[in-house]
């Protein structure tokens, strides 16, 4: 689609420095954009590319238009403005609603208006699908699931029985929602199954990345609050609760019954043990290992970053001798004292 | 379903303190259970909720009934008893066996009695499915797979050719069993494929969590012994062997040809390198990094738990100066000696 | 299939020590192979099994045939030779090309010659599938995807719209290619979606393990170069670029916009932060935590391997006292100096 810079600036509430009638029909990075594309600068690391960019217009922070050799739109938050502009220019929300003839939909299911259902989908007994929902090919919706309006369930997803999905939720391929939690009890050396009788509640505006898994609760429900964004390959165990507007990067595992607060950010590869409470506003850096509750907002880290293997081996050896080193220092201090 | 406390107590071999004719028709946690629900206390952390619970009956350890303000059932192991009671009260095993008309089953496949096969399932050549097996929607069973009686394969699972699945096995959505192991050989700078000619054998009473992957063997088979319980998002590489009644929590990776003993417990996020032997009865705490065989049962850990980022940075800096610190202490000791 | 040792030796360019007319019809490990099977020795750890092996022929390194009590084939690289011999003996590439009647293929899709398409596959608008491609059951190919010749897409895979798959690519079950990258912008406390407008390009001879995910680019494409081999459960974020002939083991996460060089090897469970550059020829040991670019080829490690939990706790306590220990040593040094 094509838009004038004036139309785009109005959409993102920005100030034009340049030609408002210039036509834009796509987006690009500062270094790849062509003269009909919009670009943006939000990370100062890339400021060096600003003057050389061949983009038709560049979204920049306030006061930066004079560093741009093409048209500019100044805004308070260039990344947010770019997100809105790119959606405006490039995303065509109007798709033909269509129920594919190879989909199987049980007669007891309730399907809203303007719903799209892809090939080889299966929708079981007593499912409720609200208006404007899309369900892509190969996805399985088990019995008694409800999906609220305008949610978008991509291909090969599994939503297990009884799960409740909010509105404007986006679920990527391969996601599994509502599989049994890992509940086992040791009965004289054999593990017996603890039935997983709770469900999963996904609130509005949640996004769930590819191949992420969210288990159903043991008794009560697993709960994901409004606006939570989950990346790929995440494991959310039974009875976890995640607060509003928290974001979790890829490959994270959250063990059972742990509560993560609101507005948290969990770095990729982190692991949070079970039955913990993480306060609102906690930021965990990548690969954090969390074994205790965190009661105060702030930034937390763990792990020792990689180094050349020969120094790594030496440092580990030293680490393992620490206890003896403390003894040696103690001995020196003891020897020292009588002298003073 | 509804049961008297007497019926439940008989099923779990417990001692009733209260009204044996009281009717129960569900389960709840100590804090959420209503007067028609059963609850339990197995973790003393929750003992404070005991007296306030509105549950109709509470399963407790021996001698604890007098702390309960409602009916109680005393047992030796409350968590095991709860698992059995909840299964008794809440799980209806009787499902209508049905082969869905959208499933594709090759003519050469052998399908037992009372088998359920869901929508859009595909079952290829020479597959053998025993009595009372259930296969849910979207699942793919490749040629020459066998599945023994009463196993339950949930939605969108892939079981690759030749895999052997035991009886009473439960496989959650998104699981992949029998994909090629990661076998490559470097032929003058290019990696060529080493054909993966073994298979996967899953023994009886194994449970496999959502999106877990178990690769086929390179020559011999990958083997999961009886009663093993695997959580979600686990990677089991080719030719791994896992001993009886071992449990593995989510997000664990076990590299190729490693053997894990019987009755082990592997914490979430752990990684075990290839070609190792882990003894029976080993417990690995969460996020363990195992690079050598473990010959003795016991509890093992690794990693340094998260801390505020400013102390984390300082501690890492100190860690990297350890070698020099050892030199400094050595120098002090040398200076010290002549004085004594 | 059956072959003489002479035929096999010719295929792998090896030197026969023994009977060239001996018949072989399978492969086995040194300890499991029977008299009609071929085996090999590439890891000296297994040399002790050489003399006792009952294999019909053993592939060994140059000069080792005299340690073998059966027929031998000497080669420069036994593992590469085994890979080629096992493929020659055991892999029958000739499969009947067949388009299954339950597959749905949009009329606008272009399907080459000798293509196999399995049950319940869906192939959307404007897809291009080249000659000799196989697509297994339950796989979803979204619109505008192209797959070049002789590629093999296994069951329950999702290839999202616009992805470009090269020739001779092997994609294992449960893989998701081209899901949205994790692009979000914080708009006054709420996260809004940054549209993911790039695509994914997978070059020739790439292998992708089960349940691995590769996200589409935000603006430019995510790129996997020729000959890259990825194991299971890997997460490749948006705009990552992976150089030729790099191999990545299971459970690795590579964050957004990071570039991995050519001929690298990334150990299982490693995590690489975003916006980094990893040089050609870098080897990361298992569970590496990479937070900075690596400019020089070589071997890198991180993490402290597991140990018995009681020494682990003691070592961590000491680690956390390091800052004070440095102060104590400093104090000793200061006391020392005036004395000298």
TrEMBL record, chains A, B, C:
UniProt domain Mannose-1-phosphate guanyltransferase C-terminal: residue ranges? 102-180
Cellular component, GO annotation:
membrane
Q: Which InterPro entries match?
A: GMPPB_C, Hexapep, Hexapep_transf_CS, LpxD, Trimer_LpxA-like_sf, UDP_GlcNAc_AcTrfase_non-rep
Question: Does Membrane appear among the keywords?
Answer: no
> What keyword terms does UniProt attach to this protein?
Acyltransferase, Lipid A biosynthesis, Lipid biosynthesis, Lipid metabolism, Repeat, Transferase
Q: Does the keyword Acyltransferase apply?
A: yes
UniProt cross-references to PROSITE patterns, sorted A to Z: HEXAPEP_TRANSFERASES
Q: Where is each UDP-3-O-[3-hydroxymyristoyl] glucosamine N-acyltransferase non-repeat region domain found? A: 23-87
Q: Which reaction does it catalyse?
A: a UDP-3-O-[(3R)-3-hydroxyacyl]-alpha-D-glucosamine + a (3R)-hydroxyacyl-[ACP] = a UDP-2-N,3-O-bis[(3R)-3-hydroxyacyl]-alpha-D-glucosamine + holo-[ACP] + H(+)
Please, which domain of life does this record's source organism belong to? Bacteria
Which pathway is it part of?
Answer: Bacterial outer membrane biogenesis; LPS lipid A biosynthesis
Looking up Pfam families in the UniProt record yields:
GMPPB_C, Hexapep, LpxD
E.C. designation(s): 2.3.1.191
Give GO terms: molecular function aspect only: N-acyltransferase activity; UDP-3-O-[(3R)-3-hydroxyacyl]-glucosamine N-acyltransferase activity
The Gene Ontology biological process annotation of the record reads: lipid A biosynthetic process
The residues annotated as the active site are 238 (proton acceptor)
Enumerate the HAMAP family for this protein.
LpxD
Q: How does it assemble?
A: Homotrimer.
Q: What does this protein do?
A: Catalyzes the N-acylation of UDP-3-O-acylglucosamine using 3-hydroxyacyl-ACP as the acyl donor. Is involved in the biosynthesis of lipid A, a phosphorylated glycolipid that anchors the lipopolysaccharide to the outer membrane of the cell.
Report the sequence similarity comment from the record.
Belongs to the transferase hexapeptide repeat family. LpxD subfamily.
| Protein name in the entry | UDP-3-O-acylglucosamine N-acyltransferase
Which species does this protein come from?
A: Methylophaga aminisulfidivorans
Q: What is the lineage of its organism?
A: Bacteria, Pseudomonadati, Pseudomonadota, Gammaproteobacteria, Thiotrichales
| Name of the gene encoding the protein in the UniProt record | lpxD
């Amino acid at each position: 689609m094509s838009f004038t810079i004036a139309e785009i600036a109005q959409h993102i509430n920005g100030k034009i420095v340049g030609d408002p009638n210039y036509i834009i029909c796509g987006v690009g990075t500062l270094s790849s954009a062509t003269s009909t594309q919009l670009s943006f600068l939000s990370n100062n690391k890339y400021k060096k590319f600003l003057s050389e960019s061949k983009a038709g217009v560049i979204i920049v922070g306030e006061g930066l238009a004079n560093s741009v050799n093409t048209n500019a739109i100044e805004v308070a938050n260039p990344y947010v403005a770019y997100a809105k502009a790119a959606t405006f220019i490039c995303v065509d929300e109007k798709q033909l609603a269509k129920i594919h003839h190879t989909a199987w939909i049980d007669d007891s299911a309730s399907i809203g208006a303007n719903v799209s259902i892809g090939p080889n989908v299966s929708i079981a007994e007593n499912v409720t699908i609200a208006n404007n929902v899309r369900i892509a090919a190969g996805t399985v919706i088990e019995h008694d699931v409800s999906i609220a309006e305008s949610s978008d369930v991509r291909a090969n997803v599994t939503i297990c029985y009884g799960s409740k999905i909010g509105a404007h939720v986006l679920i990527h391929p391969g996601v599994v929602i509502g599989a049994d939690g890992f509940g086992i009890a040791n009965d004289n050396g054999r593990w017996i199954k603890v039935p997983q009788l709770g469900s999963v509640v996904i609130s509005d505006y949640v996004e769930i990345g590819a191949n992420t898994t969210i288990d159903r609760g043991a008794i009560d429900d697993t709960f994901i609050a409004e606006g939570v964004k989950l990346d790929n390959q995440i494991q959310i165990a039974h009875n976890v609760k995640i607060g509003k507007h928290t974001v979790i990067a890829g490959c994270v595992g959250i063990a059972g019954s742990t509560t993560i607060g609101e507005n948290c950010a969990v770095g990729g590869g982190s692991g949070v043990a079970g039955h913990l409470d993480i306060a609102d506003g906690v930021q965990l850096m990548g690969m954090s290992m969390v074994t205790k509750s965190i009661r105060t907002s702030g930034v937390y880290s763990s792990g020792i970053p990689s180094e050349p293997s020969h120094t790594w081996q030496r440092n580990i050896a030293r680490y393992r001798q620490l206890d003896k080193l403390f003894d040696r220092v103690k001995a020196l201090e003891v020897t020292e004292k009588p002298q003073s």
